[in-house]
From TrEMBL:
Name listed for the protein in its UniProt record: Sulfotransferase domain-containing protein
Domain of life: Eukaryota
Keywords for the protein's UniProt record, in alphabetical order: Transferase
Gene Ontology MF term list: sulfotransferase activity
Family as reported in the entry's similarity comment: Belongs to the sulfotransferase 1 family.
All residue ranges annotated as the Sulfotransferase domain in the record: 96-380
Signal peptide: none
Presence of the UniProt keyword Cytoplasm in the record: no
Pfam families assigned: Sulfotransfer_1
Amino acid sequence: MLLLAWLITSVDATCNPEGFDPKNANLDMARWRVHANPPVDTARTNRAFGAYKFSASDGRETFPVAFGMVEGWPWPHRCDPAKYRRLHATVKFRNTDVAVASYPKTGTTWVEQIVLLLLHGADAKLDPASRNTYNARRNPLGCVWLEPMVASARRARMSLNQFADLPAPRVLKSHAPFDAFLGTRGSTDNASLANLRQTGLKVIYVARNPKDAAVSMYFQRAPLPGKRNNIKRRMPMDAWCALYTKGYVSCGAFVDHVARWHAVSKAVESPVLFVTYEELKQNPAKGVRKIADHLGLERSDEDINAVVKLSSFDAMAAQARKAPRPGDARNAKYATLTNGAVDAKSASSHLRQGGAGTWVQHFSPLLSKQFDAAYQSTMAVAAARLGGPPPAFDFGHGCVM
Ligand code: A3P
């Protein structure tokens, strides 16, 4: 009891807003051992989806996840590595293209909505579908996520010729780490940046407090109990964090992803704008203006305010309720099962809670400290690789990581 009280009161005051749920007090990442089969090496690996099995085990229970490794990163969708390589080698961009890049669950859908509204006029009638994905019939203005749309192992929903025929401005989405980003391929980050400059593509990269991103991905991706996954209960958050901080989740390690894209955004006249979820949350009008400026779009204060209104969490959740999409039912069921506080009617895990600092409801103070320590040490390694001091990101609530 005394230990519990100590743990609760020793919550890291700098990174811990209110809302801690005492039922999570015992979460401890150290009790989980993580395994990768086959062991992940640093060389670029190309294996089909499901070829890598990752798991967290405490000796009594084992929680598995599986991914394909394409270009050395765990692919979020079933991907055919050969198709992916072909896509990488042949895709052509235009200088009117805009890409929203991110590590998953950091506010991609939100920034897509902002970009689409900025480009096409903040007109409610435009109504970019709640999850903004391109669809020839339903949402021809939507974002194109080239990697799964073209390189899917099961079926491609778009050919490269169809992509080439889309009218400007095309909006793309990608979760690729910088060195695997389409159109960049170079032997160094500088060479990749030079390639990116040549394409004329403008990129908005959005980052988020990694703990909020980890929780958000947990509610979308951590496997459900049942025969298929051979687990009796949902994976506990500490097991998830053990995998997450190792990069054994969709799109690999958060830190490498963010640090590298951040470094590229710091180059002189970089085509990449780095924004955080938290800055958008704190001052949406300022964030939307920053994005408009990066895209070279002159917009009045009235236009900006209209974009802010139509990209608010409530406005987007209302859209999602009107237009549920395939997969939403599964996600809603999952989020409800796992107490993810999603509005079952809105049925979209892409619009689950929309808060900053809400990770605190799901972490114990100990888990929070362990997560911070893992973050800091992997950030130090990533920064050393990039040849600079570790960047510090202000994730709001006095949380600088
Ligand atoms: P939560 O799961 O914490 O609610 P992505 O689009 O990259 O998958 O990110 C999804 C996360 O962004 C979800 O976080 C979602 O609720 C949040 N989000 C989406 N639209 C938002 C908006 N307009 N305002 C704030 N958060 C938003």
